[in-house]
Amino acid sequence: FILRYQLPCNPTTAFLTPALRNITHPLTLDVMLEGRPREIYRAAQLLFDRVEAGVLEAEALLTEMMRILIAVRDENRSRLNTLLTQLQVDQADLPLAVEDIIQLMEQHLNSKGASRLPVLMIAAVYDTIADHLGERILDLQSHNAADRQTGSLGDLEIALRDDDNIVTVYEMKLRPVTLSDITIALEKLKRTGLRPSNYIFITTHPVAPEISAYCRSIYPITGGVEVVVLECIDVLRHFLHLFSHLRTEFLDAYQRRLLIEPDSAVSPSVKEQFLTLRFAAQSGRRTSQL
Are 153 and 147 in contact (CB under 8 A)? Predict the structure, then answer.
């Protein structure tokens, strides 16, 4: 129902809510929930209590919830459509320079709630150059799903165009990559028996020299899998300079992937921020041409 009507709430199960997943008794008013913001959880308990006491009809509560969700959904859509319209009528004659795009992507990565963005950035790279590489992206898994649940090796899996065998795996981290992360990756490879050519960690933080050295040292024991840790912006910079003639196509591919993500994976505010940043960058480019 949530997916069908694109309502702005999490379509997955309650296990994602730490305050609720271990509750095994009725949510009466004397139960203290640990979720944040606490006022939201307390308000929900009060509503449940009023329904239980017969003061509030369950149907009326559900109807009001649907009304608010639809209103928020439509408001989010309206804001996005306004920003998209601005972009369409303000396309600068001169494309953004590679370093302008890098700055734009860095700013977007600094958004609150940006954990999904590195996946979308690398996916957009492959969307742009897939025909040149003869490779394709396998379907992206849900942002909130664990690898063990989905059976996937990482956040992004790449296969040859006419083959389902995985050749490259990407795992994204919005923190420094640790030895433990690499150990877990090796365990996944051992458990699944899969042997991609590359297992690439993408991080938004600097790569420690000892991590790079460890990755080099384990090649003989991985069965031929190259494990490497790279910084997200470094990867983007290299790609965009190497394929500078496709830099606008990359930006468009990233925007498409961003906007079709469920709001539970990328919030409307993060989507709006990208469109606002791109509009500002393109407007600045146009102003400098005058």
Answer: yes
Place of tokens 């709430």: 9
Q: Is residue 158 within 8 Å of residue 135, measured between CB atoms?
A: yes
User: Is 116 in the same domain as 204?
Assistant: yes
Query: pTM here?
Result: 0.79
**Structural domain that includes position 230:** 95-289
Over residues 172-188, the pLDDT tens digits come to 999 999 999 999 999 99
DSSP, residue by residue, the chain: -TTTTT-SS--S-GGG-HHHHT--S---TT-----SSHHHHHHHHHHHHHHHTTSS-HHHHHHHHHHHHHHHHHHHHHHHHHHHHHHHHT--SSPPPHHHHHHHHHHHHTSTT-TTHHHHHHHHHHHHHHHHHTEEEPPPPPTTS-HHHHT-SSSEEEEETT--SEEEEEEEESS---HHHHHHHHHHHHHH----SEEEEEESSPPPHHHHHHHHHTGGGTTS-EEEEEEHHHHHHHHHHHTGGGHHHHHHHHHHHHHHS-TTTS-HHHHHHHHHHHHHHHHHHHHHH-
The total of structural domains in the chain comes to: 2
CATH code for the domain in which residue 226 is found: 3.40.1340.10
CB-based contacts of 86, cutoff 8 Å, min separation 6: 275, 279
Is position 89 within any domain?
A: no
Predicted local confidence at residue 55, as pLDDT: 94
Say if residues 227 and 185 touch (Cβ distance below 8 Å).
yes
d(CA 68, CA 283): 35
Q: Are 228 and 198 in contact (CB under 8 A)?
A: yes
